[in-house]
Amino acid sequence: MNISAMGADFNHGIALFNHAHFYDAHEVLEDAWRSIPRDEPLRRHLRLHIQGMVQLAVAFHHQSTGNHVGAHSVLERALRNLHGAENSFPDLDLERLRTDLAPWRRYSMIAGWRWKDGKAACLPRPLCQRSCCAASRGMLARNMADRG
Question: Most CB atoms closer than 10 Å: which of 10, 38, 101, 141?
Fold first, then answer.
């Protein structure tokens, strides 16, 4: 897969995540992650950061199926792998995402979360988006293919 196709997959995966299609987002983001060669030192951080996005989608899929322990564990790994991702994803509002995830981290081990229509009843659903860009709500404003 070339870098342009990786960018399209990444953008599609983010859109799926933003629409709470976490399993599908994980699959698509994983394709983007796999397309980045492991042996390219200049893309090592990008690969790690995309892996963090994959893990974030997996964490929310686990939560949606009632696997609270798995959700908590994968969420923590995702956040570690997303450390410094602002350089890889300048058009994602990662500060807002981390803020949105704070209550999920605090309560991810509490039993009894109730899901309605695939969404948590008591906590906001985090979105990977820029809050200042209403035109791109729920989607990336910038195509990752431009990062070359």
Answer: 10
CATH of the domain at 105: 1.10.3450.10
Distance from C-alpha of 50 to C-alpha of 55, rounded to nearest angstrom: 9
Query: Domain containing 126: what range?
Result: 3-147
Q: What is the SS3 assignment for 28-60?
A: HHHHHHHCCCCCCHHHHHHHHHHHHHHHHHHHH
pLDDT tens sequence across 72-114:
889 999 999 999 999 888 888 888 888 888 888 877 656 444 4
